[in-house]
Design a protein that fits this description.
Blueprint lengths: L9 H17 L4 H5 L1 H21 L4 H28 L4 H28 L3
Helix pairs in contact: 1-3, 1-5, 3-4, 4-5
């Protein structure tokens, strides 16, 4: 078992940074959308961070840790899907959404690599 704190994990830091960018941007959407698609993207972005933290809390159990990292990876895909919809619906924010989409793509790759690392190197 590793002796780091979850806050030291690159995937946690990236996920938290992205959440802190998504949240205020989602609040710029029209009022009706702020509670619909805006709420969904806030929850999915928050879920990525929360699943990393919760999984880390269960890291003693390798399978549980991996399970929550997979949830986190899935959250990246969900968040990217919300961004795709927002890019079409709100072209005024498209540049910001495109940047975030790319960063979530990178985060997803990083989480996937970390899952592989845990699978190969973590003790049961």
């Amino acid at each position: 078992m590793q002796n780091t704190n979850y806050k030291q994990l690159e995937i946690y830091q990236s996920a938290m940074d992205l959440f802190l960018k998504i949240h205020p941007l989602s609040l710029k959407l029209p009022k009706f959308e702020m509670y619909e698609l805006g709420g969904q993207i806030r929850r999915s972005a928050n879920g990525i961070v929360s699943n990393i933290v919760e999984g880390y809390g269960r890291r003693k159990y390798k399978a549980e840790f991996i399970r929550f990292l997979i949830f986190s990876h899935s959250g990246c895909l969900e968040t990217q899907n919300h961004l795709e919809k927002l890019m079409v619906l709100y072209p005024d924010y498209q540049d910001e959404f495109i940047k975030l989409y790319g960063r979530y793509d990178h985060l997803g790759v990083s989480i996937f690599r970390y899952i592989s690392y845990v699978e190969k190197n973590w003790k049961n």
